[in-house]
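Q: Can I see a sequence and its folded structure?
A: Here is a first one.
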Amino acid sequence: MAPNSAPWRKNKTCRNQEWQIKMESLNKKKNALDFAMFLKEIGYSSTARAQDFEWLFDYPSTRPFLKFLASSISSSKNVLSSDEVAQYDAILVYFYC
C-alpha cells in the first residue's frame, strides 16, 4: 500500500473537512445572531430571529456587506429621532400635497 493511500490519512482528511463544515455552520449562526441583534438595536424588528437570517450568510459575496452594514449603522447616530421624523413628514406633506 502506498503511503499516500493509507486509510488513516483518508480519515484525517474527512475529519478535517467535517470540522471545517461545523466551523462554517457555527460562524454562520453567530453572524446571523449578530445581524438579528443589529436589527433589534436599530428598531427595525423586535421579533428578528437569527435563524431567519442564516441564509444570508450562505453566500460569501454577501458577508462583507452585511458585516459593514452592521458595524457602520447604529441607533445612536444613524436613526432619526421622533422630532426629526415629524419634521421630515412635514416637508413631504409640503412638497407633495
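Q: Show me another, different protein.
A: A second, unrelated one:
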Amino acid sequence: MKEIMTPREAAEYLSVHVRTIYRLVKHGEIPGRKIGGSWRFKKDALDEWLSCRKNLLPLEGNEGEKTGQHGGEENSYDRGRDRVGHNLIQK
C-alpha cells in the first residue's frame, strides 16, 4: 500500500465507501490534506486515527449510504442535521 493515498485508495484501505471518506474529511473527522484541489491521505495518519477511534461509532453509519436510500432512518452523522447537513440544533 502506498504511503500517500487518494480518497478511493483510503476508502479501500479502511473498507468504507468513498463517499464516507469525503464526508469524514469535510467534517474534519479524518486526517487529510487538499493538494492542488485533490484530497490526499497519509497511511500512517489513517492508522493512528483508526487506532484512536477503536471504541467509537462505526464509520459507515447505516446501510442507506451504500444504496442511496435512507428510508428515514437516522445514522450517527445525521443527528441534529437536516438532509443537506445544516445544523438544526440551536446553541
